[in-house]
Amino acid sequence: MEPESIGDVENSIQDDNGSAISGPRKRSGSKTSSAKNIRNSSNISPASMIFRNLLILEDDLRRQAHEQKVLKWQFTLFLASMAGVGAFTFYELYFTTDYIKGFYRVILQFTLSFISITVVLFHISGQYRRTIVIPRRFFTSTNKGIRQFNVKLVKVQSTWDEKYTDSVRFVSRSIAYCNVYCLKKFLWLKDDNTIVKFWKSVTIQSQPRIGAVDVKLVLNPRAFSAEIREGWEIYRDEFWAREGARRRKQAHELRPTLE
Amino acid sequence: MNALKYFSNHLITTKKPKKTINVELTKSQDLVNASNETSKTGARHTENDIIGGNHQHNHSTDNLEGSKQNEDNNQSVYIKPKALRSILRRKIASILWTILLFLPYYLIIKPLMSLWFVFTFPLSVIERRVKHTDKRHKEPGNSGNVSSTSSGNGNDSNEKAGSKNGNLNTIPETVDDDLNASDEIILQRDNVKGSLLKAQSVKSRSRSYSKSDVSLTNHSNTNTVFGTKRMGRFLFPKKLIPKSILNTQKKKKLVIDLDETLIHSASRSTTHSNSSQGHLVEVKFGISGIPTLYFIHKRPYCDFFLTKVSRWYDLIIFTASMKEYADPVIDWLESSFPANFSKRYYRSDCVLRDGVGYIKDLSIIKSSEENGKGSSPSSLDDVIIIDNSPVSYAMNVDNAIQVEGWISDPTDTDLLNLLPFLEAMRYSTDVRNILALKHGEKAFNIN
Q1: How many CB atoms are closer than 10 A to CB A164?
Q2: What is the C-alpha to C-alpha distance for residues A83 and B137, in angstroms, rounded to an integer?
Q3: pTM to 2 decimals?
Q4: pLDDT (tens digit per residue) in B215-264
Q5: What is the ipTM score, two decimals?
Q6: I want to staple A206 with a disulfide (CB 3.0 to 4.6 A). Which of A46, A80, A169, B97 is the partner?
Q7: Which domain holds residue A109?
Q8: How many domains, chain A?
Q9: Annotated catalytic residue B176
Q10: Which among B49, B183, B213, B257 is annotated as catalytic?
Q11: Catalytic annotation on B257?
Q12: Residue B156 included in any domain
């Protein structure tokens, strides 16, 4: 955050308090007011600043964890399907009793060699490391990196009902996105069409949950007292509650007049 | 006739607009009363007969007695006025519709509805549970409201109740990248357990809070105040990442050490485990003029690290070694990843302290920037230094990330481990807030 904006916040606090301070620091010319602002900037508790930055850190780490998970699943599926096809061709070529000949055999041989070359290249080019090994170690390696700052990244286990709602939301969201795309692309419907509006409202209503739902940062109990750790949890939950309310309100404003 | 009645009743129960038909029927009764001076019972009789007639119309293979009676009734219907006839027609149409829709309704719609109910049952249960808990949360909030108004602090109320009442509308959207002073929450310390409780009303707030604190809460526009005496009030940002940081083209600066952090170099005489693979650099020092050969080894993942990090930060090399030695090494490093180091600092830029060693003072980075641009706040809130020796960053401990010094370990992953953290740090508003956490609880009292 730039210092001017800190000054802004302080001004707003001071205005609430009844003391008159002119404008933010960058606009204030006189020495006295800037001095006041500097004194005020110690008014923002360091805890708020730290927690706020921890929120930013946590949110980006959450995004990264999600990204790595998706990457890992994509390429695991890719490799598994390749292995399946490879095993099938291998079996067809060498383990079946009746000898296969002709064009079919050529195709099988080509597939087998193609797959083996792809796998070897995948490994040599470092893609295997990038897409499978590093994502699998994401939590351990990240925790090694941030251990010196007395924080830790942990997974949050969600209950079955949360998982169920998440999956339902995911399904309905993807269906709605698909529908909106199809309606606009192939049926040339306008944005203000009722059906398009309806599916758009579905996408808004089935947004994923926000906040510390899958990954969260916890403070190291050896370095921080229970009060601070609990304060961090409360701060995070409160921020995401507010953020959720804000997003709901935004969605409500965006939503067409269906209700 | 009994069979007919059964049929008619059954059909009427299956169709949806039953009520409207009844209403129509009562209307028709009035009409009949007015025109033909028949009694109400008579009208009800005709109603039954009409239904019977319709069914006779549709199921013509019913018993004879019924059909005879219906013929009589049909005759009487013809005598009746036009209004009644139109009603009759409408009824016939509706019954036809119910017969048409009978199979689809029971075979398709009903099963689908029940299936839908079964599938969404857990959802509705959860929803009901959530609403229930919401209500429970709301109740103490409301009681808090009452008590606070009685004590003259009408502005204080529970957050949840506040959000329900549309208090969000009062939050101005223009201040979006600030910690908003009005959104505060005060936490009460539970002395027994040492944990924090959300204070529910002003009355329950302990007297230990200072007067200024209370007066602040009284003056704040919106409601709740979070915070503790030790940690101060909690201020919440409007946006997670302020727009000024999201939209800016300016990257944060990452100052990296050279020796033992990114590379390790050894002169020819020393034996190294894999010295044959190292890069050879010939250095000619100005004073002596004697060229010396150095074998330079990159730390594992060094190139990967630099490639990734150069996307998020402006890279600066700050080494405590001589310019003559560092320059060729940095050139070699630059050749192996797409970006460049924006600045290079050498031993001449370090501060020498007797008995301690060379200390890297980060303020010269800021001051050089100021000279270039004219005016810029000289705070180090966007500078991170990565170094292996604590002595080098002794003047800027709050900006430092410590890494293990690397000499020859080929399985070292320290640079790789730092990547997620560095990627997440690029949007922070002040890097010192996070990096100071290495002091533990002290970080909450400084600043």
Answers
A1: 14
A2: 54
A3: 0.63
A4: 333 333 344 556 666 666 777 887 888 877 777 778 899 999 998 899 99
A5: 0.76
A6: A169
A7: 47-149
A8: 1
A9: no
A10: B257
A11: yes
A12: no
